[in-house]
Amino acid sequence: MSKRLKVLGFGLLLFGITVYSLFPFYWAVISSFKPSSDLFSTTLKLWPIPWTWEHYKNVFLAANFGRNLLNSLAVAGGTTLVALSLGSFAAYALGRLPLHGKNVLLYLVLAMTMFPQIAVLSGLFVLLRGLGLFNTHPGLILSYLLFTLPFTVWVMTQYFRTLPRELEEAAYVDGASPLMAFWRILLPLTGPGLVTTGLLAFIAAWNEFLFALTFTVGDKVRTVPVAIAFFGGASPYEVPWGSIMAASVVVTVPLVVLVFVFQHRIVAGLTAGAIKE
Amino acid sequence: MAEVELREVTKIFGKNVVAVDHVSFTVHDGEFVVILGPSGCGKTTTLRLIAGLESVTSGEILINGRVVNDVPPKDRDIAMVFQNYALYPHMTVFDNMAFGLKMRKVPKDEIRRRVLEAAEILGIQDLLDRKPRELSGGQRQRVAVGRAIVRHPQVFLFDEPLSNLDAKMRVRMRAELANLHKRIGATSIYVTHDQVEAMTLGDRIVLLNEGKVQQIADPLTLYHQPLNRFVAGFIGSPPMNFFEGVLEEKDGTLRFVNAFMEVPIPKEKQKNLQTGMKVTLGVRPEDLYHAPYRKDEEPSFQATVEFRETLGNEVLVYYRRDDVQFISRIPPHHIPNEGETLEVFIHLPNIHLFDAESGVNLTVNL
Predict the structure, then answer these.
(1) Which residues in chain B are closer than 8 Å to A268, comparing Cβ atoms?
(2) For testing the chain B interface, which of A174, A177, A184, A267 should be mutated: the one with the most B CBs within 10 Å?
(3) Total domains, chain A
(4) CA separation for the pair A193, A177 (Å, rounded)
(5) pTM (2 d.p.)
(6) Which of A243, B159, B331, B364 measures 20 to 30 Å from B344, CA to CA?
(7) CB contact, 8 Å: B231 with chain A?
């Protein structure tokens, strides 16, 4: 009896959490399909009838939204690539090489994530302007490494630590140089880690708002989150909820697709069969 | 093929953990040498030093007369089979075996030919497209060996390759390794803690303890002429029985004497012995038996049967006399009863006498 109650309670809890976390997204989706007049109706409508493509048309036809999407893609993709390549090299060194002061280094890396974005904003601004990277994709990528690289290094270091030492040694005996052993043997085995951290880095960069707002001017480099915030209505008294919702859905879908595509790759036990435990 | 030589090789970990202590030996071209010893004796470290996975603290390692102390593993032209196989989990069996050849830029068709050849020798042709996780322990072991033999290296190194297999598979792979060595004839160094593997596989055995070489000899010499008490006690299962006592002269013959034994020492074993010496008498279990197995006039003493282990083809009888326990190994025809007190006889030609202090065998190399 008490066991059934437990199962029931657990089910209810799960249901509650699911509704709590998914309802806002559901509301955004149905709002993006409701005609503007329905958006402000006081009767609760959980289903968009009648429905319309109008907001999606507005988003893509009126503003430079396509350009913003490409910018987001370039910046998030670039951030992910740079974070993964720099991060895995650093993680290999920190996870596997006999270095002195490894832990100090790791905690220094972690410490960088302590500062709120706003605290480094002005410094970064001066830096980017000095480097001539203000209002450029590389400039945004560089600033995003500030929060993506530390956790990439941390997570990948843990992954490298778990790989059996013998694999690397077998590669050396087989005639591989350290770089070859890293590239051909170790890196492929950290695949799940690369996918996980890559995904997280991509999402973080995709969603980032404050740096994108500060370090871009105009739609040439501006990314989607900022672009949405700049959406204007037909009059000063109108907030274009429909377009905002439609744009939000458009930017969320790629992330959902990415997670679904890669969830199969985020599997444990890729090293199964390497050694006998 | 190649010769491997170690000259006074020492490895110290950290400040003062001496893992390998002035070890010297030579492995001749085509020879199969086993490094044997209890766990922590430095045998695996010695192998890793030869492979170049650890650097020596002092001394020299030579392969074909060339000092390789500072040569990285990839340039030593050795192959190593690891205890836990260390197969590359993301590669197929074929790619696992081909990896070393690819690294050495061997042409594609030559790689294919050599991998297929090795796969045939090991009987794993059907597994070439599988991943390591789809293989059984014995199959993984074969792939690990295959990865070594496709390379045609100067030297094979084996680090306890059979210790992760179950008992039956271990016996089978042991025979296969012996056959393989006969067929390929490559210089091989094999590390194990299992004396049966060492005795059956090794042309010669290097017995290590606490980082020091105890004895280097072929299996039979190691068994019949152990240089010290450690070797005598380590080789042989069940181990040699030891009795403490002193040497005394009685009725014109030198005798080993303690509270319950009086054993005359054969003339040919007396060269290094003197009256009054404190010694340890070593007798193998098969050289101790009760009356039915008595060979001729032999010294004897009384002891009580504690318990027996019947193994089918032989019986191990555990005796006790005062505080001393010892084992007798006899054929299964006359089995004494538990609790029985019997006359136990000693086969004199095979006894050993060790210096009680240093453990040196005083009755070999006469």
Answers:
(1) none
(2) A174
(3) 1
(4) 23
(5) 0.81
(6) B364
(7) no
Q: Is A275 close to B84, i.e. CB distance below 8 A?
A: yes
A252, A180 contact by CB (below 8 A): no
Burial (CB < 10 A; 0-12, 13-18, 19+), residue A200, is middle
Q: Which residue type is seen at B334?
A: H
Please report whether residue A91 resides in a domain. Answer: yes
From the list B84, B99, B134, the residue facing A174 with the nearest CB is B99
A39 inside domain? no
User: In tens digits, what is the pLDDT along chain A, a chain of 277 residues?
Assistant: 688 889 999 999 999 999 999 998 888 888 888 887 777 777 777 777 777 888 888 888 766 888 888 999 999 999 999 999 999 999 999 988 888 888 898 888 888 888 888 888 899 999 999 999 898 999 999 999 988 999 899 889 888 888 888 999 999 999 999 899 999 999 988 888 888 889 889 999 999 999 988 998 888 888 988 888 888 766 667 778 888 888 889 888 888 888 888 776 655 434 444 454 4
User: Alpha helices of B108-265 — where are they, by DSSP H?
Assistant: 108-122, 137-149, 167-184, 195-201, 219-224, 229-234
Is A22 contained in some domain? no
| Cα pseudo-dihedral A174, A180, A183, A188, rounded to 10 | 0
Specify the CATH number for the domain of residue A185: 1.10.3720.10
**Chain A residues inside the 8 Å CB shell of B99:** 171, 174, 176, 184
d(CA A207, CA A202): 9
**Would A5 be classed as within a structural domain?**
no
With residue A240 as reference, give the H or E element that holds it.
none
Q: Does B86 touch chain A (CB under 8 A)?
A: yes
Range of the domain at A65: 53-274
